[in-house]
Design a protein that fits this description.
Blueprint (H helix, E strand, L loop, with lengths): L4 H27 L2 E6 L3 H12 L4 E5 L14 E2 L4 H4 L3 H17 L5 E9 L4 H16 L8 E4 H7 L10 E9 L2 H14 L3 E4 L1 E9 L2 E9 L5 E10 L5 H5 L10 E12 L8 E4 L8 E6 L2 E5 L3 E2 L11 H12 L13 E10 L16 E5 L5 E5 L5 H16 L28 H4 L5 H10 L15 H10 L5 H8 L2 H4 L1 H13 L3
Parallel strand pairs: 1-2, 1-10, 2-7, 4-12, 10-18
Antiparallel strand pairs: 3-6, 4-6, 5-6, 8-9, 9-10, 11-14, 11-15, 11-16, 12-13, 13-14, 17-18
C-alpha cells in the first residue's frame, strides 16, 4: 500500500484529534476522584467499567497496552456454552454460559450471530452419543437457545461441509453456538462505558497501589507520554487477566499466586478449506482437546485451547509444533488437507485459568474454568478466570463485591437488558451489506459517508483485505487507536487474517508516523 499525500494528511489529522481527546482524558484521571478504578482493558475490565458506569458510579479504567491487546483479541471468536464441559458434567458452568450467550446475542446483534456447527460421525455410536449430549445442550440454554440441534445424513453433512473427509463418513449432528469478533466487541464495550461517563485511557501502566491505613484507595500510574501520577478511587478492581497476580501483589499482603496461563493457538486458512457458512467441531484431537474449524471474515479459522504455560506473556507466539498439531488434526476431517504453506496467519493467546486455592504448590492444584472474585484484606477486588461469553456476569459479580469493599451505595446491575454501543438488528434499515462493516453496527453509515466525502479514504489498506482507509481514520478519531498495530490488529482484523498483507500496510502507515 502506498498512501497518497491526501490520505496521509487525513490519517495524521485524525491521529492529532485522537491525541487531543487523550490528553483531556489523562487530565481527568489525574484531577478527579473516582468511585471505581478498573485495572485492565480486556473483556473483564471493560465489562466491569460498563457495569460500574451504568450503575451511576464515577468510573475510570486504565489499560497498560491497548484495549483487548492480549487474551481478549486472540480467542476462538466464539460465544459458547462449552460443549466439552458437558463431558465433565459441569452443568452449572454450561448453563450460565448459555444464558450469557443468549444475552450477548440479544444485546450485541451487530457483533454476535448464530453459527451452525457440524460434528461429523465416522463410527456407529458417534451420532447417538453426540446427538444426545447436544440435545442436553439445547435444554440447558432454555428459552435463550439459538436454534435446536438435529441429526444429519451423510449427504447433508457433505452439503454443509463440502471439504469434509469422505472415507467412512456416516452422517453427523448439527448444533448452534454464537460467533463474534472479539476485538470489535471490546471496542463496543469501551464506547458503551464512555457513553455512561467512564474515563477510559489505554497506554497507562499501573506501577503501584495507593494504600492508606491498610486499605487500597487508588493507584500510581505511568502513562506513555506524561509523568507518573496518582488516581484516587474508593475501590480498585483488578481485571488484569493473566497478569492479575502481579496486581494482587502490589498491596503488600504477600498474596498467593492463583493464575495459571494456558495458551490457545489458531491458524487462518483460505476460505476454500471450508467454503460454506458452517463450522466443524472436532470433539477429540490426539491429546483429547477440542478443535474448531470456523468460517470467519471470509477465511477459515482453525484452533484449539488450553496448553499450560510456565509464565504470562503479553504477546505469545505460536510454535511450529503447535501449528503442525492443528493442521494434522484438522486434516483428519478435511478432504483437502491443509499444509504449512497454506497458513495465511497464526496467532496465540493466553487464557487466565485459576487455582482457587493458590498455584504456588501449597494448596489444591485443581484448575477452575469458572471465574473467581476475590476481595483482599486491603479491599482490592480481583476478578479472575472466566471467558468472553461470561464477561457480563463476571462484571456483575465483581461490582457487587466492589460495592461492599468500597462502601459504595447499593445500586442494582442494569446490564442484563442493556444494548451495547452500535447495536442494530440484522435486517433493520441501515444494516450494512459488507461483512466487515457489520461490526460497526449503527455507525457503519458514518464510515461509508466518510469515504464518500474523501474518496482517498475509500481505498483499501491492501488489495487482499476488505478494510478501507476510512476505518483507520475512524479508529484514530473515535476508538483510541494510536499506532499502526492498534489499527491492523484490533480496530480492523487485518493482521489476524493475512499477516503478509498486514505487514505491507504496517510499513506504509509507519512511513507517515503511525
Amino acid at each position: 500500500m502506498k498512501l497518497s499525500s491526501r490520505a496521509a494528511t487525513l490519517l495524521m489529522q485524525a491521529r492529532e484529534e485522537g491525541l487531543g481527546s487523550r490528553a483531556a482524558r489523562l487530565a481527568r484521571l489525574a484531577g478527579e476522584p473516582f468511585d471505581v478504578l478498573v485495572i485492565g482493558g480486556g473483556a473483564t475490565g471493560l465489562g466491569v467499567a460498563v457495569d460500574a458506569a451504568s450503575r451511576g458510579f464515577r468510573t475510570a479504567i486504565v489499560e497498560a497496552l491497548d484495549w483487548a491487546s492480549c487474551t481478549s483479541s486472540r480467542s476462538t471468536k466464539l460465544v459458547h456454552g462449552g460443549v466439552r464441559y458437558l463431558q465433565q458434567l459441569d452443568f452449572g458452568l454450561v448453563r450460565e454460559a448459555l444464558h450469557e450467550r443468549g444475552l450477548l446475542h440479544r444485546n450485541a446483534p451487530h457483533l454476535v450471530h448464530p453459527l451452525p456447527f457440524v460434528v461429523p460421525s465416522y463410527r456407529w455410536w458417534e451420532g447417538p452419543f453426540y446427538g444426545t449430549g447436544l440435545k442436553l445442550y439445547d435444554a440447558l440454554a432454555g428459552s435463550l437457545n439459538l436454534r435446536p440441534s438435529r441429526f444429519l445424513s451423510r449427504s447433508e453433512v457433505v452439503h454443509r461441509i463440502p471439504n469434509v473427509h469422505l472415507d467412512g463418513l456416516r452422517g453427523g449432528v448439527e448444533y448452534f453456538d454464537g460467533q463474534f469478533d472479539d476485538a470489535r466487541m471490546a471496542i463496543s464495550l469501551l464506547r458503551t462505558a464512555e457513553a455512561h461517563g467512564a474515563v477510559a485511557v489505554n497506554g497507562v501502566r499501573v506501577t503501584g497501589l495507593v494504600v492508606e491505613a491498610g486499605r487500597v484507595r487508588g493507584a500510581e500510574v505511568r502513562p506513555d507520554e506524561v509523568p507518573s501520577f496518582r488516581i484516587a478511587a474508593r475501590v480498585v478492581v483488578n481485571c488484569a487477566g493473566i497478569f492479575a497476580d502481579a496486581v494482587r501483589a502490589m498491596d503488600g499482603s504477600g498474596a498467593t499466586p492463583m493464575i495459571e496461563p494456558a495458551q490457545g493457538v489458531h491458524v487462518v486458512l483460505d476460505r476454500s478449506f471450508q467454503p460454506s457458512d458452517t463450522a466443524i467441531m472436532v470433539p477429540h484431537t490426539d491429546d483429547g482437546r477440542v478443535l474448531f474449524v470456523i468460517p470467519w471474515h471470509g477465511h477459515t479459522l482453525v484452533g484449539t485451547t488450553d496448553t499450560p504455560m510456565p509464565r504470562a506473556e503479553p504477546d505469545p507466539q505460536p510454535t511450529e509444533a503447535e501449528i503442525g498439531f492443528i493442521l494434522s488434526n484438522a486434516g483428519r476431517y478435511l478432504q483437502r488437507v491443509p499444509r504449512r504453506e497454506d497458513v495465511l496467519a497464526a496467532f496465540a493467546g493466553m487464557r487466565p485459568l485459576v487455582h482457587p486455592g493458590g498455584s504456588d504448590g501449597t494448596a489444591s492444584k485443581k484448575v477452575s474454568r469458572e471465574h473467581v472474585v476475590q476481595v483482599a484484606a486491603s479491599g482490592l477486588v480481583s476478578v479472575m478466570g472466566g471467558k468472553w461469553t461470561t464477561y457480563r456476569r463476571m462484571a456483575q459479580d465483581g461490582m457487587d463485591r466492589a460495592i461492599e469493599a468500597g462502601g459504595l451505595e447499593t445500586r442494582s446491575c442494569v446490564t442484563e437488558s442493556m444494548r451495547v454501543h452500535g447495536a442494530i438488528d440484522r435486517g433493520d434499515p441501515g444494516w450494512p451489506a459488507e461483512e466487515w462493516l457489520q461490526a460497526y453496527g449503527s455507525e457503519a453509515h458514518q464510515l461509508i459517508e466518510l469515504a464518500a466525502c474523501e474518496p482517498e479514504l475509500a481505498e483499501r489498506v491492501h488489495p487482499d483485505l476488505p478494510y478501507t482507509l476510512a476505518a483507520l481514520v475512524w479508529g484514530l478519531r473515535h476508538e483510541q487507536a494510536r499506532h499502526a498495530e492498534d489499527l491492523l490488529h484490533r480496530r480492523t482484523r487485518a493482521a489476524f487474517l493475512r499477516s503478509q498483507a498486514a505487514e505491507a500496510s504496517r510499513v506504509a502507515l509507519r512511513a507517515v508516523g503511525l
